[in-house]
Amino acid sequence: MTPHQPWDVLSGARVFDLAQPMRRGMPQSPNHPPYRMLLERRHGDLIRSDGGSAANEVVITGGHVGTHIDALAHVSQDGRLHDGTDAATAQSAAGFSRLGIEEFTPYVGRAVLLDVARLHGVPVLPPAHEITAAELEATLEETRTDLRRGEAALIGTGWSRHWEDPPTFTGDRHGVPGPGAEAGEWLAARGLRLVGGETLAFEHIPAGRGHAVLPVHRRLLVEAGVHIVETMRLAALAEAGVTEFLLVLAPLPLVGATGSPVRPLAVVTPDDPA
Amino acid sequence: MTPHQPWDVLSGARVFDLAQPMRRGMPQSPNHPPYRMLLERRHGDLIRSDGGSAANEVVITGGHVGTHIDALAHVSQDGRLHDGTDAATAQSAAGFSRLGIEEFTPYVGRAVLLDVARLHGVPVLPPAHEITAAELEATLEETRTDLRRGEAALIGTGWSRHWEDPPTFTGDRHGVPGPGAEAGEWLAARGLRLVGGETLAFEHIPAGRGHAVLPVHRRLLVEAGVHIVETMRLAALAEAGVTEFLLVLAPLPLVGATGSPVRPLAVVTPDDPA
Amino acid sequence: MTPHQPWDVLSGARVFDLAQPMRRGMPQSPNHPPYRMLLERRHGDLIRSDGGSAANEVVITGGHVGTHIDALAHVSQDGRLHDGTDAATAQSAAGFSRLGIEEFTPYVGRAVLLDVARLHGVPVLPPAHEITAAELEATLEETRTDLRRGEAALIGTGWSRHWEDPPTFTGDRHGVPGPGAEAGEWLAARGLRLVGGETLAFEHIPAGRGHAVLPVHRRLLVEAGVHIVETMRLAALAEAGVTEFLLVLAPLPLVGATGSPVRPLAVVTPDDPA
Amino acid sequence: MTPHQPWDVLSGARVFDLAQPMRRGMPQSPNHPPYRMLLERRHGDLIRSDGGSAANEVVITGGHVGTHIDALAHVSQDGRLHDGTDAATAQSAAGFSRLGIEEFTPYVGRAVLLDVARLHGVPVLPPAHEITAAELEATLEETRTDLRRGEAALIGTGWSRHWEDPPTFTGDRHGVPGPGAEAGEWLAARGLRLVGGETLAFEHIPAGRGHAVLPVHRRLLVEAGVHIVETMRLAALAEAGVTEFLLVLAPLPLVGATGSPVRPLAVVTPDDPA
């Protein structure tokens, strides 16, 4: 065996769980079916001859619930999906015949945290703060990091700290911080494979406006073919000052679906600049 | 930056997707709610003012459907869960208050493939083949690999090659290959964190017998506290001759659930013995 | 044929639909799984060789959603269901082995409307109005009607007029009118087969109190074995001044369930006192 | 009170329950989401301060499951629904904007049982028996009954006696008895409001053919606007020799759905010819 066995390299690494726990009543977009997990069989319902018993459950959920990733099929513009596919012919009772979440190859690679909250010296950005391209640039400069084509960029807003406070988290009244159209453009130009953030929608939501239009989704999913991960839990990663890390992100292969809940992991080795 | 950045180590690695695709009608145990994904909104249902449109879905599934991992709460013996927890008091409308799948820390570490099919020189073991401790030992000797405490062992039966043939895969008539009670004992004694296999249940199922008793589940989940991953897709990994690899396995954090679908990845670097 | 054929008697009858329409987002108790109906197949997804196509849907609902009836198994007191059944042994993964909604024989018989709103000369009772036994008595006197053993009594509050205004209908802030414990006692003493009302819960809910205790459910379901129908639409019936009518109430035979949505009908013949 | 109060007329009537009990695993068409009812809260999960406890459930079902009625929106021909509505524009995430099951006015009226099994002197017609117009005519003649415009006709095949034997009931191998295209034509010409039968599909299904085309659905639902009720339980009614009765059929008002489970009742007074 060589010294470069990946499990040796990663031994001693710290693994950050970037997913929010999934439970009934957690914040989610009202546009998607609400999450519900309930036990079907409980222990004691049916006891095997040897005294054993098995419990199980049913899970009802949307694909865009909890920490999740958007498939390219999620959004269309003027009737077209990314790469010009006619949305109407791609969708059916079986879901999408193209660009469903099963087409996303699990990501195992470098990712960068663009921590805009840290840039402003606050734990959480104010609601309705619009993230600009200049702010994203500034986070890179400050941390001496770079974005590379085909890789991942996560934007830190601190918003995941509001998770236990659903009205604030969903931001119906006061809005939600996120990248505006200009920052979306900047991200699209970077040739990334995926981007992610801590809010329900990877967008700037002004106070009281709701999700009337979603320009960043359009720019990234439809035009640039960049996947979007939402409702991530980035607070601990940000707190540790991590800026560069190994991201492993493997959504469920829900054939034909427009998205999937996912449990992304950030793997940070002691050698890391952090 | 140092040469040991994990993304550098893994650059050039081959990533094997160890999950079966999830679609309506796939083989699954009749004991669990059937998987169903269907679109709710389709493109064109609701077009935003800028010509954009978003599609979404509902997913209905059991926690033990597709490639999935069993939580320790899944099985009880004589009314007790692992570590003696009274099953009756731990279960409620909110699921399990202890030993639910959210308590499983995502696994990022070394795993070994004990390929029993390869040991016998066949692509797939015959239905109802009972895997013995001696066979598991023999796979380690043949590949000069070892199992280590706290790590993962996957058993290769080739059974995932039957995925497209549901009657064969479920094995109602002819049975399913898997570890018998003695092999379960051998595995339990290894101090592993998790084990996995290609069949619906990580058990030896004799022809025509069904899942009357599940001794390996009892030994591993209840007594030893070892998690079990089922319905994995190991054929490509086995075909590549991989015996040792980095396994990343991060189930959805379904709070209180007895299991979760999961998308495990095997990361194999060019340096690997394979 | 005789002159008494029921279809002849009923010809010319007016049929009042006593059910609220079921749609996503309708008012319902937060204690129950939310209603959701979505199309699975749409026309055009799969076209048969002759040009035909069939659409269908999935419905996800609680048993106590929309206009619905409570089975006796719905409520227990000190661990006992009606008639002393041990609740713990009657419930399992298959639902209830006793007193599930399938045990309710469909009702085809006389019913009386006790219109308390009319008694007070208002279209809708104020939120948090507690209905008393004296008020129920007074409605009978005023309309010269009587209650008979084994029959049905519906209480008019006018509350169904708030259906399109979910916050008012659910009454989280201001409460909901309904029978208090004393009126429940009065109803229980009448030997009725079933009672019904227009609100989510057939109870008096004081402002800001929520459903902390449900004394009328206890008295009727557990002790007296009287079924309760909730969320009925009685406004048109009340407006027509009907006090006595033929009620047909046939819930879905959901074996083992604690309740079922239902579409009750009031059949009013021209001969009726109304 | 007059002697014609409907509850007096119906007092002493026998009420036949024409619905099959709904439970997991019951026979249903594989084209529709499978029925599943499971408890969410059980007694004891949450005990109120006064010792009370409430249990509830979630129900997951298709609209064409168990005894159910087809809405006119269920079937289209060449892209058109009944009355020429463009199917594509009527369907959306909210279901159908026209011809959904909520548009069906509950039926309270005369119905006739055309008992073809009795005509042949058998309890159950053989699988794959095609019912002809002549047979339907003959049942009317034999029982001296007539069909009237706007009313209901149910066809007796005896098939509901196979309910407990799912493979026979679904008829995948040997087919299912039912009206052929010619009988469908004859029914359509009668100007009925609804028709019903005991099988999964109100069609003649030849052995081994499945539901390749559904000519009777087309003729009745799309062209004639006649509703179809399926999977009815008619055996007891047939056994009692009833030919004419009061039918009450009130599906759930599932707004926008293509069908609904229903609990139809046949009310037979002692005066009836039976």
Can you put this structure into words, describing what you see?
The structure is a homotetramer. The mean pLDDT of chain A is about 95. Chain A is globular. In chain A, strand 13, helix 7 (about 215-225) and strand 14 (about 225-230) form a beta-alpha-beta unit. In chain A, the strands form 4 sheets. Chain A has a 9-stranded mixed β-sheet with strand order 1-17-15-9-11-13-14-5-16. A two-stranded antiparallel sheet of chain A has the order 2-4. A two-stranded antiparallel sheet of chain A has the order 7-8. In chain A, about 20% of the residues lie in helices and about 25% in strands. With about 270 residues, chain A is an alpha/beta fold. Chain A has helices at about 5-10, 85-90, 115-120, 135-145, 165-170, 180-190, 215-225, 235-240, and strands at about 15, 35-40, 50-55, 55-60, 70, 75, 90, 95, 105-115, 130, 150-155, 180, 195, 225-230, 245-250, 260, 265-270. Chain A has 8 helices and 17 strands. The longest helix of chain A is centred in the middle third of the chain and has 11 residues, at about 135-145. Chain A has a single domain (about 15-20, about 65-270), classed as Putative cyclase (Glucose Oxidase, domain 1, 3-Layer(bba) Sandwich). Chains in contact: A-B, A-C, A-D, B-C, B-D, C-D. The interface between A and C is medium-sized, with 12 and 12 residues. Strand 4 of chain A pairs antiparallel with strand 4 of chain B.
